[in-house]
Design brief:
The protein is mainly α. The protein folds into two domains: 72 residues, no CATH class; 123 residues, no CATH class. It is 61% helix and 2% strand. The chain starts with a helix and ends with a helix.
Length: 209
């Protein structure tokens, strides 16, 4: 009987690690609801076994990612879009995401070199609506993640130059950074301060390129 409990804990820990691995592998393909279900399952397992420090950090990482995704969905919901920003009926294919990301990356590099900020509306004006239609918020997030996927770890994300309103941080900033493994502050105030510094660094980096 004495060996059953350690064996059971070992099996549960393996199951926990498989859940974390699945989230790592499928993170760009999962819906928020799918991720929430996996996080909930991992949380339940964490209550039944003593997690090593690394596994606790992995669970915390995915809990924060889920929270960030939910905040993005609340901030960039259909009801929040202006009347002149209709939702596209179809979602983008992976190839369309990559094509748009390439075009937008070029424009953002030009924006950085010009020491400016931009908006989705301005990008649409420059590319033409036939190239950049009004996107579903989830597609916006996927495109921006693709824009910065190959950015060096020590370099600011180009997508930080996309703003809303009167030069305010875009709701997708946290989502993109987190999706690419960048650490982000928990509070909105700290996040905005970090974003401001990121924009200044990006302008300095591209000033003489």
């Amino acid at each position: 009987m004495g060996d059953q409990q350690p064996n059971r804990s070992s099996a549960l820990l393996k199951l926990f690690r498989r859940l974390i691995h699945r989230m790592d592998v499928e993170k760009h393909a999962m819906s928020t609801d799918d991720l929430a279900a996996l996080v909930a399952e991992a949380e339940n397992l964490s209550k039944r076994i003593a997690l090593p420090g690394t596994e606790k950090k992995n669970l915390d990482r995915w809990q924060r990612r889920l929270q960030a995704l939910r905040e993005v969905e609340e901030s960039v919901s259909v009801g929040d879009l202006p009347e002149d920003e209709p939702m596209a009926e179809g979602r983008l294919s992976r190839s369309q995401v990559l094509q748009l990301a390439s075009a937008i990356r070029t424009l953002l590099q030009q924006t950085a070199g010009g020491q400016s900020l931009t908006t989705w509306g301005e990008l649409r004006r420059r590319l033409g609506e036939s190239v950049l239609p009004h996107l579903h918020p989830d597609d916006q997030g996927e495109v921006l993640v693709a824009v910065d996927r190959d950015a060096p770890a020590n370099e600011t994300l180009l997508s930080s130059l996309i703003v809303v309103g009167d030069g305010e941080i875009h709701p997708l900033y946290r989502h993109v950074a987190f999706s690419l493994g960048r650490d982000t502050p928990f509070s909105d105030a700290a996040l905005r301060s970090e974003w401001t510094v990121d924009v200044l660094r990006l302008r300095a980096l591209w000033k003489h390129r």
